[in-house]
Amino acid sequence: MLKSYPRISIVTPSFNQGAFLEDTILSVLGQGYPNLEYIIIDGGSTDNSPDIIRKYAGQLAYWVSEPDGGLYDGLQKGFSKATGEIMAWINSDDMYHRMSLFTVAGLFHAFPQVSWIMGRNSYFDEEGRIFLNDPDLFQERWSKWRMYGYDGQFIQQESVFWKRQLWEKAGGYIDGSLSYAGDADLWVRFFRHELLYSTTFLLSGFRIRTRDQKSKDHLREYFEEYHTLLMREKKQGRVGSYLLWIKLLKLLLMLLPLGRLRQKLLFRIMLVPPKLAYEPGRGYYLKKK
Question: Which parts of 52-155 are beta strand (E)?
């Protein structure tokens, strides 16, 4: 246990998500974290969402229900109210796992050089059951070169937490001009300054729904914006030439007979950092394998 806990600011944007919103709210407030600043920005819902929010209003730092310019406009309104040393957002159908905020505080304390982290990818179905997918080749470890190469495609937004200093370095804003890939834009700007460290902990889960899910229904539009963002970054400095170098080296690595050696070299080429891990008796440590 820490002697003192940093303030963690969580923002939840919402619009007509009454079927799932209360689960999300309880997953945040149920953490029992002693220095939580929880902000809910509702876009003027016409379902029972405002009533659900009012039920927990006494435990919120701020909330509002009024028409806005969409998801990222709502997020910007929320983050403009936030004061925490650590920041994150969780959408109104996703959920945090038990003790996540304590875990996040502990990780940033144990690894002061780390500015943003991502938990192990996990998912909920519509009934709230948790499941995992098999980890990818990189074991859910990321670098900007993975992102630039569409390698793995998605950083799990609801499992990402960052320090305020990084938020300010990256401009301190969510790009409201984007309709779908505002998260990717933020990650790209974060990558200009700091490495993203993954952890072996489950922090949050993405809820997969059978219908009316923006991230699934507008996947093509998301990738169009995503591609535009990456093309912008590839024009910066020597990014494009390094990506070509990576592609060449990856082809050459396929000639190596030893898969473990090939993977180790690939991690190094892609500048993928080690994982933040924990074992009882050992404590926190950097896991390079």
Answer: 62-65, 86-89, 95-96, 116-118, 123-124, 130-131
Domain limits of the chain?
A: 8-274
Query: How many Å from the N-terminal Cα to the C-terminal Cα in the chain?
Result: 27
Q: How many Å apart are CA 129 and CA 108, to the nearest integer?
A: 29
Contact 277, 152 (CB under 8 A): no
Tell me the C-alpha distance between 79 and 41, whole Å.
Answer: 10
Residue 259 clears pLDDT 80, i.e. is over it: no
Q: Is 99 left (phi over 0), alpha (psi -120 to 50) or beta?
A: left
Q: How many CB atoms lie within 10 A of CB 245?
A: 12
pLDDT, tens digit (0-9, with 9 covering 90-100), for 194-223: 999 999 999 999 998 766 666 666 778 888
The distance of Cα 224 from the centroid of its chain, to the nearest Å, equals 20
Global pTM reads: 0.92
| Coil vs helix vs strand at 199 | strand
Are the CB atoms for 71 and 157 separated by under 8 Å?
no
Structural contact between residues 17 and 90, judged by C-beta atoms closer than 8 angstroms: no
Strand duo 196-198 + 116-118: pairing? parallel
Which CATH superfamily includes the segment(s) 8-274? Spore Coat Polysaccharide Biosynthesis Protein SpsA; Chain A (3.90.550.10)
Which residue type, as a one-letter code, is found at position 235?
K
User: Dihedral of the CA atoms 10, 14, 18, 20 (nearest 10)?
Assistant: -50
Q: Distance between CA 263 and CA 244 in Å, rounded? A: 19
Tokens of 4: 């003192």
Helix (H, G, I), strand (E, B) or coil at 232: helix
Q: Where are the beta strands (DSSP E) in 215-266?
A: none
